[in-house]
């Protein structure tokens, strides 16, 4: 069976991409895999030490609230980066994700409002919003994928073009404004947490409902696991499973590792590429839905500033821009590095603009490490049997 | 008095001094300042914030978003909340609806909010949909739009076609300006037609392009209203590039030095200066007053305008409202 054969071959390609290593080569390989984690750890250590010093001891970087903050802050960049991880591993690129997110934000707000106003209960109105966001985004992904895979237009061009189209549609649909009039409970879905913890006197742990407190107790109340974080974690878990444990994931690596070889082994390449772009658009759609919940409104410009950050997160996370290599957790780390930087710099009271300089430097370092690995160890494409 | 008594007395004195210091340290409030975006208007506001904080001996933490937008402003806001040491936040919400949730989080964390320049909901913190901010301190933007409309109408002798270039939808400040502008043109000037409103999404290049295109489309365009720094500078640039400086009148909201230059060159006929210094300065004073227990702070303060034209631009009484940003 051609399919089975392709599967085993694809698996061998990814299982041991760098055979025959000297200790030095092994060191470079290990470094290239873990440096982003090391960098993140260093960053956190720097902030843990510097933040209390700069504030005279009144501010700490490691607090329950800040940890939850960072988890919330990574959501848009991470969700845009998740689908992008698959696309780039498959040797493509999706430049439309930021605007697909905006489009999905408008769609979900319109859907939630329409559903709720016609008597649908709050929770199911939100579900309708999620479905509308993902379905609308998927149509864009399908459009991208079909033109890239079937008409052989470079992904760069197609997704650049569709980003403009989608942006225009979103602005038109929102009638030049923010889509408001959502039920109040939507704000709770987007901002409330699974648990609340009150530190110190009269405190304790509360589930689901925010405890009614006032005065200085407010400052001691922190949310734990905001709902958007839970949904995002669920999506990340699915992405890890799909990329690293399924045939879909193996085919993605195989296509990115070498298109010719993938075709020869019988992988349905065009079909798979279409799926990759639908997947990428879908995670952007979820990002749009969550932004609608969080800000209790749909916005046609919400994703505008996020594309470059999301690609930066993917690259920092070690996904090769040439395709064929990368992990979902790498992208999570990349998004974390960006969020930790933003938060830490604000807490240090350093201008947020430094974030750009550091992220830019880290992106270049990431690519340098990727390249030096290939130089020292040899890119596995050359190791493949003819 | 025995040695022991002296010793005890010294210790208790030391404890007293230390505890009163601690009390002072605790009473000293800390204020966060989070404007909308990097631009000369907010820079002047920042100068006002710093001036008041210095006079009152307060600490301020200032963070300026690199670009306009809720996805940029919110993570910075969250990090400021996470500091855990801020008592007050002075901010210009980048969307009147979308920023309600994130700023509610600040309030839930025990931080009191004052909005400057832009407001939440409908800006009526007494009986409107959003009540949690202490105050809104800013321009009456609808009135500013009306003043701009009358100024432009006068410059074009009460007839012709005019165009509005604005930044983003659903931002209370620029939205109000367009509303006031349209209202006056509709009601008071039957011979003036407003031929369009474009959003440049806070990008000056886009403002230039949009205005240039409208100049192409409307060959007899008489005037342009730029609703903020970027819009007015872009509109002015497009008019100059088209060789229509002085022919097409521009009214500029915000008295940047660039707008004043264009006023001197005859491209811009009227510059509406807001008072960002007042907004920043007063907001800090409001925070200090609230912390001291003052309960009768007005929930809405309109800081007014200075209307600058070619005749008064060199008069120090007006020139002082030009946005002076240190280099």
Overview of this protein structure:
The complex is a heterodimer of chains A (386) and B (327). Chain A has helices at 2-15, 23-54, 64-73, 75-89, 97-117, 122-149, 155-173, 185-191, 227-245, 247-257, 259-264, 269-295, 307-316, 328-348, 354-377, and strands at residues 193-198, 204-207, 221-226. Chain A is mostly helical. In chain A, β1 (193-198) and β2 form a beta hairpin. Helices cover 46% and strands 18% of the residues of chain B. Chain B folds into 2 domains: 27-139 and 276-304, Response regulator (Rossmann fold), CATH 3.40.50; 141-273, Rossmann fold. The model of chain B is unreliable at 15-26 (pLDDT under 50). Chain B starts with a helix and ends in an 8-residue tail after the last helix. The chains are: A mainly alpha (386), B alpha/beta (327). The interface between A and B is large, with 48 and 40 residues.
Secondary structure elements and pairings:
The complex is a heterodimer of chains A (386) and B (327).
Chain A: H1 2-15, H2 23-54, H3 64-73, H4 75-89, H5 97-117, H6 122-149, H7 155-173, H8 185-191, E1 193-198, E2 204-207, E3 221-226, H9 227-245, H10 247-257, H11 259-264, H12 269-295, H13 307-316, H14 328-348, H15 354-377
Antiparallel strand pairs in A: 1-2, 1-3
Chain B: H1 3-27, E1 30-34, H2 40-56, E2 59-62, H3 70-83, E3 88-91, H4 100-108, E4 112-116, E5 136-138, H5 141-155, E6 160-166, H6 172-188, E7 192-199, H7 204-217, E8 221-226, H8 229-241, E9 249-253, H9 257-264, E10 268-273, H10 276-291, E11 300-302, E12 306-308, H11 316-319
Parallel strand pairs in B: 1-2, 1-3, 3-4, 4-5, 5-11, 6-7, 6-8, 8-9, 9-10
Antiparallel strand pairs in B: 10-12
Helix pairs in contact in B: 2-10, 3-4, 5-6, 7-8
